[in-house]
Design a protein that fits this description.
With 370 residues, the chain is α+β, with helices and mostly antiparallel strands. It contains twelve helices and ten strands.
Length: 370
């Protein structure tokens, strides 16, 4: 009873984790690109394969989770999941310890974990898998342990049929998410989101940070972490002749009060001179924005077509938002951080329509022009 319940719970966790990533594979591939980037593993040559790696990882996670739930090839399945969990554990520990990827994307945009929370989750899952492996060890076949020849077992054909049907559904969900939009949108930028209202909530409840200085005593070589208040209030740290000196490059800004959390906080658009035009856009009766996080990869023909159609909308404020100030030839150019654009847009380019700050439509540019 206990081992069966534990097996089902772990299987459901893997299925849930795999499903929310399968729905938005492009978003998960952006997370993979972060891991391959120079600040993390410094393997930029793999960034172009991020989507492929994402597909492989999600299929493995979902497929193995389903096999564990259906109790198919239990030794093979548990062995593979333990290996997968060790791999994920390495990634999340690296992210947490070096603070290089702030969100592993383990549950996509549906559930947000800090790096250390992600690592702890992986360790708990790993321990659970090892326990299940031990509890089921008496059920392992002595021979042919890692093959799929289970046709003689009770209900095996039914289980494999269920696995096949689920695989077809998985392929459909993944395909829709890649070529169009996620079937289920877990992002803060879903249709109906009021950017203006979100901005007001963020302003009303901001996060609070406190700076901690790394202070070193030039006489004793003692090092202390001193918060900004203590630094100001205690003259020993800054009085003339004080042996305490701030170590450059070692200061930390630490969150002391979490404010209203929303990805909309990163929605900041500037014109080519650096002037913030976000309020102009979200306060406009209607605004149509074309986003491109890799403008150099967009064909001139597609760009020309989308610009012409957007520019024809005389009722709207229109901008072309990218990372290069000369991307658009007809629309007014605006700038936004590439990571922030990827949070909004899953396709390159992408069209977002706002009415008084509320998202009323969004779609890949190739569909917008049809």
């Amino acid at each position: 009873m206990i081992k069966g319940l534990l097996r089902i719970v772990i299987a459901l966790i893997f299925i849930l984790s795999g499903f929310v990533k399968a729905v938005d594979l492009v978003g998960f591939s952006f997370k993979m690109e972060e891991y391959f980037s120079p600040p993390v593993f410094n393997m930029p040559f793999l960034e172009k394969f991020a989507l492929l790696f994402s597909i492989i990882m999600v299929v493995l996670e979902l497929w193995l989770g389903l096999m564990l739930l259906l109790k198919l090839k239990i030794k093979f399945t548990l062995s593979a999941l333990i290996t997968l969990c060790v791999f994920f554990g390495f990634l999340t520990f690296y992210s947490a310890y070096f603070n290089v990827v702030t969100d592993c994307g383990c549950f996509g945009d549906a559930i947000k974990f800090t790096p250390w929370q992600s690592f702890i989750k992986d360790i708990v899952l790993l321990v659970g898998l090892v326990i299940v492996f031990i509890l089921y060890r008496n059920e392992f076949k002595k021979t042919d342990q890692y093959t799929f020849n289970e046709t003689k077992r009770p209900y095996a054909s039914i289980k494999y049929t269920i696995l096949g049907i689920c695989s077809i559904i998985l392929i459909y969900v993944m395909t829709v998410g890649i070529v169009s939009e996620p079937m289920i949108d877990f992002r803060d930028y879903k249709i109906g989101t009021d950017l203006l209202a979100e901005k007001k909530k963020i302003a009303a409840s901001p996060s609070e940070y406190k700076t901690f200085y790394s202070m070193k005593n030039s006489k004793t070589n003692e090092v202390r972490k001193v918060n900004q208040d203590d630094y100001i209030n205690k003259t020993e740290y800054w009085a003339e002749g004080s042996p305490w000196k701030i170590e450059e490059g070692k200061n930390e800004s630490i969150l002391i009060k979490q404010g209203y959390k929303s990805e909309i906080a990163k929605f900041k658009i500037e014109d080519t001179t650096g002037t913030d035009i976000t309020q102009e856009i979200i306060n406009a009766p209607r605004a149509v924005l074309v986003f491109s996080y890799h403008p150099q990869d967009v064909s001139p023909e597609l760009l020309q077509q989308i610009e012409a159609k957007v520019n024809a909308d005389k009722t709207a404020v229109t901008y072309g938002v990218s990372t290069i100030p000369t991307t658009f030839k007809i629309l007014k150019n605006a700038m936004m951080d590439a990571t922030a654009i990827k949070t909004v847009a899953r396709s390159n380019p992408y069209v977002l329509t706002l009415e008084k700050g509320k998202i009323v439509d969004k779609q890949p540019a190739k569909y917008y022009i049809k």
